[in-house]
Design a protein that fits this description.
Layout: E1 3-7, H1 12-23, E2 27-32, H2 35-46, E3 52-57, H3 63-76, E4 82-85, H4 103-123, E5 130-134, H5 159-181, E6 187-192, H6 206-213, H7 220-231, E7 242-244, H8 258-272
Parallel strand pairs: 1-2, 1-4, 2-3, 4-5, 5-6, 6-7
This protein binds NADP nicotinamide-adenine-dinucleotide phosphate.
């Protein structure tokens, strides 16, 4: 039984991914910010099959919470086989994390960076550790603006562009980590899950959602792809890739820039070092 940790697993792509792993008989840990929603998801998942379901409280909005939760997970499990870095937000207005970062870069990117590096020693104990990062084709609109990671430094806020920035950062992190893991049995890959019918569009005006919905696919589709990346032997040697459902896996010039990926990695490491 593989141990699979999924962030934001109470709904959307995360929940469908948990379903796929549970139906496959794996041990899934739902790392969720809302205990009631997580408990509801756990009950639903337990009805499904032979796998084991567990809930752990994780709020990616707080570096201290991420550190504490990762530490308690490490105390309980020496080895983790699969990390699915799935949780994500899309917010139209400027908000900040508990630590004062612009919220989309804070939750989507910085939180997952810390979470992954904290848990990496356990993933490296797996004979085939898999780190799977939910990026997005929206990274094509993104750029890296280190000086605007803190909410106080952000001027003229555009929520969509900021979401794109956070997804570009997810992709660059996946690539930088893959480089560092080269030659080991652990891999880091990223995907665009397609336009997926989930709660991520909850803050869109209703008329916009109605139009977008026509093009959305069910969360079960990316869930199957994530399971494949995690468990299919064909993925054993695939590292540092970006795959896409629904659209060609086109990466921006910035996403392919290895120097940028390493600079971002090093700058983020320095930013978060007190929690690592
Ligand atoms: N849907 C799409 O079309 C699409 C396209 C490209 C990429 N993606 C990416 O796919 C991933 C999953 O998205 P989705 O569509 O499934 O979205 P979703 O239905 O909105 O689910 C997002 C999940 O993230 C959780 N989350 C939000 N803030 C969190 C925090 N501070 N700490 C811990 N968990 C938190 C949510 O918890 P709550 O339920 O408590 O809010 C929820 O479980 C995201 O990374 C997204 O960027 C989605």
């Amino acid at each position: 039984m593989k141990i699979v940790v999924i962030t934001g697993a109470n709904t959307g792509i995360g929940f469908a991914t948990a379903q796929a792993f549970i139906q496959d008989g794996q041990h899934v840990i739902l790392a969720c910010r809302n205990p009631q929603k997580a408990e509801h998801a756990r009950i639903e998942l337990e009805k499904l099959g032979t796998g084991k379901v567990e809930v752990i409280a994780l709020d990616l909005n707080s570096l201290q919470n991420i550190q504490d939760t990762a530490n308690s997970l490490l105390q309980k499990y020496e080895k983790i086989d699969v990390l699915v870095n799935n949780a994500g937000i899309m917010t139209p207005n400027l908000e900040r994390t508990e630590d004062g970062f612009e919220k989309q870069i804070g939750v989507n990117y910085l939180g997952h960076f810390l979470w992954t590096l904290k848990l990496l020693p356990a993933v490296q104990k797996s004979e085939a550790g898999r780190i799977i990062n939910l990026a997005s084709m929206m990274h094509l609109m993104g750029s890296i603006q280190l000086d605007q990671f803190c909410a106080d430094d952000v001027h003229k806020y555009n929520g969509v562009i900021r979401y794109g920035n956070s997804k570009l950062a997810n992709l660059l992190f996946s690539h930088a980590l893959a480089e560092k893991l080269k030659g080991t049995s652990t891999t880091s890959n990223a995907l665009h899950p397609g336009g997926v019918d989930s709660e991520i569009y909850r803050e869109l005006p209703k008329y916009q959602y109605k139009v977008i919905k026509l093009f959305l696919i069910p969360p079960s589709k990316p869930a199957e792809l994530i399971k494949k990346i995690a468990l299919d032997p064909a993925w054993a040697k695939r590292n540092g890739e970006y795959v896409s459902l629904q659209t060609p896996a086109i990466q921006s010039t910035k996403a392919k820039n290895k120097k940028l990926a390493h600079e971002l990695y090093d700058a983020t490491y320095a930013m978060l070092k007190d929690y690592l």
